[in-house]
Each structure stands twice: as structure tokens, then as C-alpha cells.
Design a protein that fits this description.
The complex is a heterodimer of chains A (117) and B (107). Chain A is an all-beta fold and 117 residues long. The mean pLDDT of chain A is 97. With 107 residues, chain B is mostly beta strands. The radius of gyration of chain B is 13 Å and the shape is globular. The chains are: A mainly beta (117), B mainly beta (107).
């Protein structure tokens, strides 16, 4: 099982960015997925969750109404659409396979997002 | 939201020592707790789920215990490969939150 994130980069405050996560080695549509981030020198923060069929999504308050999670099971891909980016969104963003109990059993290598003023 | 508090923040021990990390939840989370190991510059890796179940491929020197609000991660004999930051995470209810992490170093 492999998860590979992409789409990170440098973006201006208030800007937008779309992160992608390409999955392989698993029946992607059978699994819920999440995004988790880690700001420089800080702990882990869960951001968003989506079920295998996209029927249910959850968001942390810190990103609700600014970030949107979605997936394309035909392309084994997960996405995070980020808008109204703030300095505090600077972090490494990980996609993670999410168990039925909501722990994270497979992680990608992460993609770095830097929000600059 | 349920708050997770880990202690200590940093731990320095000798090779072969028994190491214990504590994680406390702000309310009961039954046994809905996971532990992750994160080596420097790498992604986290699942160590333990349901408070005490070892994930696939995790060495048996790692163990977890606890229920309710108080949990521990124990390394029975610290190895150089165990240098990492360890994170606890509850999954009792959304939002799922992590502790602040415990950095383990070799003395």
C-alpha cells in the first residue's frame, strides 16, 4: 500500500491550493481517508475525513468552510481543496488511510505547504 | 473537544532501559486510543491501536495499556532505532485529536 501526496508549495496569504494523494496497492474505494497536518515543530492535527463512497465528510473547526475534501475513486485519488489560506496553515500535509475506528493505519510521505505574506 | 496530554515532552534514556510514556484524555475515551511513532523527517507510523493492540510488524518490545482517561506506551528495552517522537491519538468522537508528542532520545 502506498500513498503519495503532491501539490504543496508556496502560496500567498489568502490564496488557494489543491493537494492530491495518489493511492496504490489497495482497493481505494473501500477505505475512508483523512488529511492530517503538522506545523513546523508542532504536533499532529487531524483536518478532514471522507468515507469510501464520499457520503460522509468531517472537518476540524480550524479548516471548516475553508477546506474541502473529496475523492475520485476511478483515479484512486484523494484531494484537499484549500482556500483563504492563513499563515497558520503552513505545515506538512499528510493523507492517511483511516480505519473503521478512525485511527490512521497507512500514511503518505507528506507535502509541504508554506503560506507567505 | 477532547484534549490529549502527553508526558513527558522529552525523555532521555540509555539503550536497554524500560521507557514509559503517558497520555491522558480530558474525558473518558474507553480504549479508543492509538499510538504512532514518527522518526525525524518521516511520516508517522501506527504502533498501537485500541490502546493495547500492536500494529502489524511492530516489535514486541512495544506495548500499550490503559482505558478511560489514562494510557501508557512502554518500550521494554530501548533500542537506538526507537529514537523518535511518539504521539497518542483518540478516536472516540470527532474531532480526533493528538497529544503534543513525546521525543525519545538516547542518553
Amino acid at each position: 500500500v502506498q500513498l503519495v501526496e503532491s501539490g504543496g508549495g508556496l502560496v500567498q496569504r489568502g490564496g488557494s491550493l489543491r493537494l492530491s494523494c495518489a493511492a496504490s496497492g489497495l482497493t481505494f474505494s473501500s477505505y475512508s481517508m483523512s488529511w492530517v497536518r503538522q506545523a513546523p515543530g508542532k504536533g499532529l492535527e487531524w483536518l478532514s475525513y471522507i468515507t469510501g463512497g464520499s457520503s460522509t465528510t468531517y472537518y476540524a473547526d480550524s479548516v471548516k468552510d475553508r477546506f474541502t475534501i473529496y475523492r475520485d475513486n476511478t483515479k484512486n485519488s484523494l484531494f484537499l481543496e484549500m482556500s483563504s489560506l492563513r499563515d497558520e496553515d503552513t505545515a506538512v500535509y499528510y493523507c492517511a488511510r483511516t480505519s473503521n475506528y478512525a485511527f490512521f493505519d497507512v500514511w503518505g510521505q507528506g507535502t509541504v505547504v508554506t503560506v507567505s505574506s | 473537544d477532547i484534549q490529549m496530554t502527553q508526558s513527558p515532552s522529552t525523555l532521555s534514556a540509555s539503550v536497554g532501559d524500560r521507557v514509559t510514556i503517558t497520555c491522558r484524555a480530558s474525558q473518558s475515551i474507553r480504549n479508543w486510543l492509538a499510538w504512532y511513532q514518527q522518526k525525524p523527517g518521516k511520516a508517522p507510523n501506527l504502533l498501537i491501536y485500541m490502546a493495547s493492540n500492536l500494529a502489524t510488524g511492530v516489535p514486541s518490545r512495544f506495548s500499550g495499556s490503559g482505558s478511560g482517561t489514562d494510557f501508557t506506551l512502554t518500550i521494554s528495552s530501548l533500542q537506538p532505532d526507537d529514537v523518535a517522537t511518539y504521539h497518542c491519538q483518540h478516536y472516540y468522537s470527532s474531532p480526533w485529536t493528538f497529544g503534543q508528542g513525546t521525543k525519545v532520545e538516547i542518553k
